[in-house]
Design goal:
Length: 188
């Protein structure tokens, strides 16, 4: 019931403005912008402390896990299925085939704890963004990335390691070390 109420609340607020809404099922401290479109909500597993910004398209139909502390900025697309290859190779026969024709891709997506998805990014079916990883703006994620990777490009390639950046910040703010190590599993 609560999920239905939150879904209706987001739709209502879309009509009157774009302010953030708090409180999703099982994730009362998560925030999802009302302008974000979520298809296949039944397949979404949302942890707490998640931020999902404005004007995103999220397809959870084949399963989408968003772990604790994930930030998804604005104008991102996360898809768990894709028909672009299937439509092109099957031509007119695509509509008559039904089901999952050759070239159809459908697979769950996972966004690891405390990862960050930059604006205008695309995450393709079957992809995994590792824990503490960053997907830079305008990147296209295809496949699995290691934990703490900085990914950039189309398709995204590893260009760095977030632990190097984290170590610099923790050196300036040692009071944060305990909190960091609790989720990261150790020092940077």
């Amino acid at each position: 019931m609560r999920v239905l109420i939150n879904r209706l609340r987001r739709r209502f607020v879309r009509l009157i403005g774009f302010r953030m809404l708090f409180g999703e099922a099982g994730a009362p401290l998560s925030r999802i912008a009302p302008s974000t479109c979520i298809e296949g909500e039944a397949g979404l597993r949302l942890a707490d402390h998640v931020f999902i910004g404005q004007f995103n398209f999220i397809d959870a139909g084949a399963g989408l896990v968003i772990e604790e502390g994930v930030q998804i900025t604005n104008f991102c697309s996360i898809v768990t299925h894709s028909t672009h290859d299937a439509l092109r190779v099957n031509g007119r026969r695509f509509a008559a085939l039904g089901g999952e024709p050759p070239g159809y891709r459908k697979a769950p997506v996972r966004l690891g704890a405390y990862s960050f998805v930059g604006p205008h990014s695309l995450i393709e079916p079957g992809s995994t963004l590792g824990k503490g990883a960053i997907l830079c703006a305008y990147s296209q994620l295809r496949g699995a990335t290691p934990d703490f990777a900085i990914m950039a490009g189309q398709p995204a390639r590893q260009v760095g390691d977030t632990r190097e950046r984290d170590a610099t910040l923790l050196a300036r703010h040692p009071e944060l070390r305990e909190a960091y190590e609790a989720w990261a599993g150790g020092p940077p």
